[in-house]
Amino acid sequence: MRRLLLALLLFSFFTSPSFSQKKTDLFKTLDTELEKARVALKTPGFAVAIVQKDQIVYAKGFGYKDVENQVPVTENTLFAIGSSSKAFTSAVLGVLRKDEKIDFDERPGKYIPELRFAEPWMNEQIIVKDLMAHRTGLPRHDFSWFMFPSESKSELIKRIEFQEPFTGLRQQWYYNNWMFFLQGEIGARLTGKTWEQNVKELFFDKLGMTRSNFRIPEMEKDADKSFGYSVELDGKTSKMDYYNIAAMGPAGAINSSVSEMSNWLITWINGGNFKGEQIIPEDYVKEAMSAQMVVSAGTPSKEHPDVQFSNYGYGWFLASYRGHYRVEHGGNIDGFSASASFFPTDSLGIMILTNQNGSPLPNVVRNMVADRMLNLEPADWLGETVKRLEEAKEAQAKAKAAADSTAKASLTKPSHILMDYTGTYEHPGYGKMEIDLKNDTLFVQTGLLGGFLEHKDYDTFNMYLIYQGEPNKDNAFPFQFVSNMTGDISGLKAPFEPALDPIEFKRTPKENELSIDDLKKYEGAYLLMGVQEVKVYIKEEKLYAFVPGQPEYELVNIGEHEFNLKVLEGFKVKFEEKDGEITAVSFIQPNGTFRGERKKVE
After folding, report:
1. With contact defined as beta carbons under 8 Å apart, do 351 and 171 qualify?
2. Which residues contact 35 (CB under 8 A, 6 or more apart)?
3. Distance, C-alpha 219 to centroid of its chain
4. Three-class SS state of 434
5. What is the CB-side half-sphere exposure of residue 594 using CA atoms within 13 A?
6. Does pLDDT of 233 surpass 80?
7. Number of CB atoms found within 10 A of residue 471's CB
8. 369 — alpha (psi -120 to 50), left (phi > 0) or beta?
């Protein structure tokens, strides 16, 4: 009887008007604080949802999803969630493991037979778990997919073989989007369905996530979607184009709302269960939100001694937040930032989506909400962040002033005329860049992004990306062009991966199309060094050179009277003209130049 009375008293307390009023007052105060944060951080718009146990207790939009037309954000507005998608990708494998279709301790090559890594030890020792916990020894190599996107999964798989590691297996945690692409492809191979179909059928359909999607066209046709924006430190706001992540989707392609993502958090808080159905295997849930790799020391700071340790599970970051176990993953993609977090022992989940590129707001709002919902003394997260942004703004201004004061024209010249730097530059682990000369400026085009080159020193040029329609003059990639033994430009080195030496791209000169009549003037026999006869002739509408005792060589025109030997790097042929007639040829190769007069036809 006493226990029954206590239960009734507790029930009446939690359902009493006074308790409900406290919660209402809390959320009213939260409304004010969150709008204050939005304004202080110059964020165009964002949405937040809070879940407790199996209920959404708060969901609201702030600011604008369409700044130009002042259209407000709602709790149902779609945003790109970026890398908050990763937990979905790994969870697909969690479901497949329960079905005994995959072993996390197996090599990924078992499921993708054509997969090769750069080093033999990687092929032999990397297991699926390593892909899930960012511990393969590979750095990010992000420019390989960001600048050179592809819809071809097979092409992306081929690139991995040429992406160098920077450390040994499981020696250091390093974030890598490529390994989540591989997880998505492993799931696809095991089910015969695409990554998108797997996520939709296993999770979206079962969690009522009916508007969540994977592709920009689907996002664009939704009436309640947000545009993305960049916000400079001075507050200047610019609309950004959506980024099509293409075949790299498993690393971060999902678009969703805080209301639908709340169901995802509820599922994790409840051990993988949603409305009585086990959506994610319970043993996988425990494993995924347990430490699989140390991210960093995560030692307490002087300012926040109760925020500590930094580990990673499967698609989730793990930390101790003021004495509470926190599981979280952020997301950043052009124009959008996100944070999905939950506190499993507190049955609390917090979802934040914003339309600000690289925004500090999700972390600030997450902490503000957590402090209030966990009954902690609120820390001044907003004030600290605003202070850091002001310091960054001042540092940026000083750096620009210093750069402007020391800027000077290069005192050196390139070793070649600008036309000699044009051509196709390729690296098998990245892709192709085209460099063309237009109006005395060298322009670069990758698979997606363009840019231009500005001479810096000798054969080094600064490459400025044209990003979102504007040249990014604040960040330059130094391109160092390299020459072969004959002095021709043979490639360039670019620091696309900070953890490694510059990536070297091999140059193929532009091939000029010549008519048969143009080629005919080069035909004939040439006597090299007065001894060796070389024949030049047309076959199948192409020009060839034949030296006795050697195979015939196809000649590829790269300039006026200048040809490369198609199959030999560093070898070229240059013809001489006098009075409108070809009179001689020089074979230019690493061991010297060999000239021959054209034999007269008798």
Report:
1. no
2. 62
3. 20
4. strand
5. 16
6. yes
7. 13
8. alpha
Close Cβ partners of 189 (under 8 Å, ≥ 6 residues apart): 111, 112
- Is residue 96 within 8 Å of 190, Cβ to Cβ? yes
Q: d(Cα 416, Cα 507) in Å, to the nearest integer?
A: 15
* Burial environment of residue 549 by CB neighbours within 10 A (0 to 12, 13 to 18, 19 or more): exposed
Q: What is the pTM (predicted TM-score) of this model? A: 0.87
Helical (H) or strand (E) element with 271: none
Distance CA 491, CA 155 (A): 22
Residue closest to 113 by CA, chosen among 154, 81, 72, 82: 154
Per the listing, tokens 């209030």 go with 372
Close Cβ partners of 41 (under 8 Å, ≥ 6 residues apart) = 356, 359, 360, 361, 364, 382, 385, 386, 389
Q: What angle do CA 380, 381, 382 make, to 5 degrees?
A: 95
Residue-wise DSSP of 177-232:
SHHHHHHHHHHHHHHSS-HHHHHIIIIITTTT--S-BSSHHHHHT-SSB--EEEE-
Q: How far apart are CA 21 and CA 29, in angstroms?
A: 12
pLDDT tens digits for range 368-390: 999 999 999 999 999 999 999 99
Nearest to 546 by CA among 518, 516, 585: 585
| E strand residue ranges, 223-270 | 228-231, 237-240, 255-256
What distance lies between CA 157 and its chain's CA centroid?
Answer: 15
Digit-coded pLDDT (tens) for 514-534:
999 999 999 999 998 878 899
Query: 373-399: buried (b, 16+ CB within 10 Å) or exposed (e) per residue?
Result: beeeeebebbeebbeeeeeeeeeeeee
How is residue 460 written in tokens? 């080094």
Cα angle, residue 528 at apex, residues 523 and 529 outer, rounded to 5° = 155
User: Helix H segments across 442-580?
Assistant: 516-520
pLDDT, tens only, 311-360: 999 999 999 999 999 999 999 999 999 999 999 999 999 999 999 999 99
pLDDT, tens digit, for every residue of 583-594? 999 999 888 899
- For residues 98 and 284, is the Cβ–Cβ distance under 8 A? yes
Report in angstroms the alpha-carbon separations of 420 from 358, 417, 460, 491, 508. 39, 6, 14, 11, 11
